[in-house]
Amino acid sequence: xxxxxxxxxxxxxxxxxxxxxxxxxxxxxxxxxxxxxxxxxxxxxxxxxxxxxxxxxxxxxxxxxxxxxxxxxxxxxxxxxxxxxxxxxxxxxxxxxxxxxxxxxxxxxxxxxxxxxxxxxxxxxxxxxxxxxxxxxxxxxxxxxxxxxxxxxxxxxxxxxxxxxxxxxxxxxxxxxxxxxxxxxxxxxxxxxxxxxxxxxxxxxxxx
Length: 208
Fold this sequence. Notes:
The protein is of the alpha/beta class and about 210 residues long. The protein is built from nine helices and five strands; from the N terminus they run ααβαβααββαβααα. The strands form two sheets. It has a three-stranded parallel β-sheet, sandwiched between helices. Strands 3-4 form a two-stranded antiparallel sheet. α2 crosses α3 and α7 packs across α9. The longest helix is centred in the middle third of the chain and has 14 residues, at about 65-80. The chain starts with a helix and ends with a helix.
């Protein structure tokens, strides 16, 4: 008898029932058109002044048509007089190296050639403030130099913690743009405080 048989010999397995789980999904026929409409619907890009440096933060999550979405944002920023560039906003992903994170973006089709703008990848961060609980708030040094930051991500539930804010744009601002340093700080107090830390850190970034 093998070791697993020996370990499980007294375990009574429950009955299994076969079920089908059909998830209803929708599709967008023209991602470019939908992205452009969403961008222009509230006039947020009107805040960009001619010549403004605009950091477009692209993450490591697998989003359908991500490169097409990013390209529309790049083009619309240019149309509004901004000078866009792209950074990887993915915390410690990509082996926590600038090269690894740039490679992840390239794997999604996001390169300087396809986007027509610089991709600035680094792991250096700058402190832009502290939360009320004393956490240091770090952001990518290239993002810190920009006049505007536009995060592009998806919003979903997190697999490891619960709260009013889980995975989404606030987490991308707090952890993604925070790089490895920011991610480590946000995780330092455990998952029980993750949602609160994300909100507190992101609010400081937005305020500054």
